Amino acid sequence: MRDQLEAPPPDLERLESLWEAGLKSVFAQYQVAAEPVLALAAALVEVGCGMQRLGEGLATPGDLLLGDLCLARASRLLADLGDQPRQVAFAGVVESVSTSAAASTPLPSVRALLLAAIGSGR
Amino acid sequence: MITTRRIRVPSRRATEFIDLTPALQEAVSASGLDDGRLFVQSLHTTFGLAVNENEPLLLGDLASALERMAPMELVYQHDDLSRRQNVAPDEPSNGHSHVRHLLLQPSLTVLVEGGKLVLGRWQSVFAVELDGPRSRELAVQLDGAFLSPPVSSDRQLLEMELARQLLVDAESVATPMRRLVDAGGKRMRPLLAMLCSRLGPLHDPLRAATLAAAIELIHDATLVHDDYVDDSATRRGRPTVAAAEGPERAIAVGDYYFAKGTRLIAELGNRRVSSTVANAMEMICISQIEDVEVRGRYPGDYAGYLRVVRGKTAALIEAACVGSAQLAGAPEAVTQRLARYGDLLGIAFQMADDLLDYSQHSGKPAGQDIRQRVLSLPLIYATEEGSSAPALRELLDSTLGDGEVLEVQRLVKQSGALGRVEEEARQLVHAAMREIEEAGFDPVRADLVALAHSAVDRVS
Question: Which residue, B367, B353, B361, is CA-closest to B312?
């Protein structure tokens, strides 16, 4: 388990810089609840939403684009996994958070939503 | 080609402004007119036409102005029925209405692009009743390039699906996106998806429309984010979501439709389709990052251009073709052909789009790409060689104000790079068409060829 956390997973092309900057620890949190690919997808969604500062302020253009890539990578990992219920549930998390951000209403906890989404496939 | 129709308009008051815009748009959609003109003509002498803003207080002002200019209380010779010949038994006293009609238009022309009326943000087309209430009639002619019946019906189904998807969303995200969707656009990606879905044995128009709408929403979501990154003020002739709603909301709106698009596709329950579109989305994101990085080495080189354009533009066009055929159960040989067709078409489309930056008549603000230092093939070619190259390179190293942008445009035109890019785009389109023609693809071949042509014809 420890070795898995030390080395970035192979699906982080162009996102390597995020690994040591926080993605690793977020990934570790989800790995307790899910298999590695699913945990990485969840971590990417959480970090992606965070980089885009949804409901918290204005992201820089650079962070916006990296956040987009986090969300797209998560989406692709889930698609390749062929886990349709979780694909739908993960997309629902982003829909829920972004709707709240657009309406300037309090954001739900992204982590709580993602943990529920991970549980939805069981 | 020209088609004609009549529109009946009942009025309810003596003076009334009736917004015809939805009925005229419906006439355009039903006819399949893609690019051309709509002519509308009143068949009455007290029922005129006008283009103005649909704001109730303003309409009250306009009605008051008409009444002041030709008050009903004045004496009009036309109302002296004893002095007129051939007077109908129910002839009204309406001299004031005829005089007011002089202030309006008896007919109007509205341009149509991409199946949409070309109207400014605040413009609506009005019929103005001056002697109501009555039942009125308008003659409409539609002239221009029409979509084929399959594409026209696909387009109508697509527009209905897009409207339906926006209807179920929260207003905080749906309202800004609806403005962007309603502003038009060529709908090339979703129309390709609708057409290519006919190439498989499991073709289902409703499932194809869901996929096509999802692809369009994903495309529009990327535009919403791009416009913030590029600091663009307008898109499709209207303020960008970032400009109108603020960048924070624009980011949320883009994220929402990015996610919604992937959900709609996942719900179709086809793993290959999900992976095809997800891969394209990832390529778009990577190429956007590269596109911004390249701006530090502006104008870049051909290899870098091709890499970025393949991701930024061609990936989703290719995914629209391939994913919809996969959804319909098309064999691998078909999807491989479509992948090559989509890739070639996407690159050609972007090259043609680059050329619009040098046209004053494209609808896209001229010089915007230069100002924003967006990767562009004409600039790459013009700075590579020729007498303009040194001056161009020097200009691009400096701050680009309006004067410098105009000078860059002039030098690029002088270099001959525009012709070179147009020729290259046309060659790519021919190569894309060969993929289709060699494969047969009988039910949709002509439409896929026409769509390929339309990718570059907009620069002619």
Answer: B353
